[in-house]
Amino acid sequence: SKRAHTGKVAVGESNQRWCSDGFGFSCDNGEKLRVTFALDCCDREALYWAASNGGYDSETVQDVMLGAVERRFGNSLPTSPVEWLTDNGSAYRSYQTRQFARMVGLEPKHTAVRSPESNG
């Protein structure tokens, strides 16, 4: 039985909720590329992204978090926490990632397990 997707990711104003995920693909020369990104759930703007030919880890996610905050807020932090919606990947759920998120003004939230459609 498939569970109905009843959640709403979109929000009415920018900087209320951002989502982050990643995707990978193979290049013509056989190399693989992995892109990790952050989007604003209101206007769907790509705030920041990082690409590598390896996997992604907590450090990559933290780089994307910081890049997104700097893009939207410059050298300041958000005046109220921005919800950071992600899947349940280990790079997003790690203690270090969650602590870093709070340090830069983000509030980590995770989608339900096995519901990738819930993440933006």
Automatic annotation (TrEMBL):
One of its GO terms (molecular function) is nucleic acid binding. InterPro entries: Integrase_cat-core, RNaseH-like_sf, RNaseH_sf. GO terms for biological process: DNA integration. Residues 9-120 form the Integrase catalytic domain. It comes from the Bacteria. It holds the Pfam family rve. This is DDE-type integrase/transposase/recombinase. It comes from Klebsiella pneumoniae.
